[in-house]
Specification:
Helix content: 40-55%
EC number: 2.7.4.9
Pfam families: Thymidylate_kin
Radius of gyration: 16 Å
Protein name: Thymidylate kinase
Largest sheet: 5 strands, parallel
Strand content: 15-25%
Order of helices and strands: EHEHHHEHHEHHEH
Distance between the termini: 33 Å
Shape: globular
Number of helices: 9
CATH architecture: 3-Layer(aba) Sandwich
InterPro entries: P-loop_NTPase, Thymidylate_kin-like_dom, Thymidylate_kin_CS, Thymidylate_kinase
Strand order of the largest sheet: 2-3-1-4-5
CATH class: Alpha Beta
Oligomer: single chain
GO molecular function: ATP binding; dTMP kinase activity
Length: 208
């Protein structure tokens, strides 16, 4: 794994249905209110490779677990280093970049069906300065997913997510020691979670 740290890069992780997407937007708004330059994005991205990943997740096309792991890695490479909108270059300009998922998701999800060390090898990317993991039990996540009323994606099954949860915790315990990690109880209210995250960010960057 790449040992470098990408400054001003904040990553949110967690199981499907944990509430990441809402917290990404809340934190971005908080930083904007502090007059900070900020942008947020997600993985899979909306780029051509990311759209292919989404097609697999939504059962429109089929491929092998290893090929899917490689697609995620390729999408991440583009997310980071695309000359027009790569977050690597954005952070170099002093902008805060917040991502809904990063390589920890590959380590958690793809490693269920592909060797963990292989997934780690193909995700040799810079680590974020901040990693926020929203911890919600699998059963609660599945209830939230059911409430969406949409067809479940490829990985949204209990047996699979139990393994993903275990992989997430292993990946976080073994992450780059220079990355600052916050594990949040995702069963709290949206406001309570946001307050805890904002305090952590403000304290780390000296905004308070």
């Amino acid at each position: 794994m790449n040992s470098s740290i990408l400054k001003n890069f904040i990553v949110f992780e967690g199981l499907d249905g944990c509430g990441k997407s809402s917290q990404v937007k809340i934190l971005a708004n908080h930083l904007e209110n502090l007059n900070k330059k900020v942008a947020f994005s997600c993985e899979p991205t909306d780029g051509p490779i990311g759209r292919m990943v989404r097609d697999v997740l939504q059962h429109r096309i089929k491929t092998t677990p290893k090929a899917l792991a490689l697609l995620y890695s390729a999408d991440r490479e583009d997310h980071l280093f695309n000359a027009h909108h790569g977050i690597f270059y954005s952070t170099q300009e002093g902008r805060f970049e917040i991502s809904d998922r990063y390589f920890y998701s590959s380590l958690a999800y793809q490693s269920v069906n592909v060797d963990y060390d292989y997934v780690k090898e193909i995700n040799s990317f810079p680590s974020p300065e901040i990693l926020i993991y929203i911890d919600v039990p699998v059963d609660i996540c599945l209830k939230r997913i059911d409430k969406r009323g949409e067809e479940k994606e490829l990985f949204e099954k209990k047996e699979f997510l139990v393994k993903v949860e275990k992989n997430f915790k292993f990946a976080i315990q073994n992450c780059n020691p220079a990355t600052k990690v916050l594990v949040v109880d995702g069963t709290k209210t949206i406001a309570e979670i946001a307050k805890e995250i904002e305090h952590f960010i403000d304290e780390h960057y000296g905004f308070i």
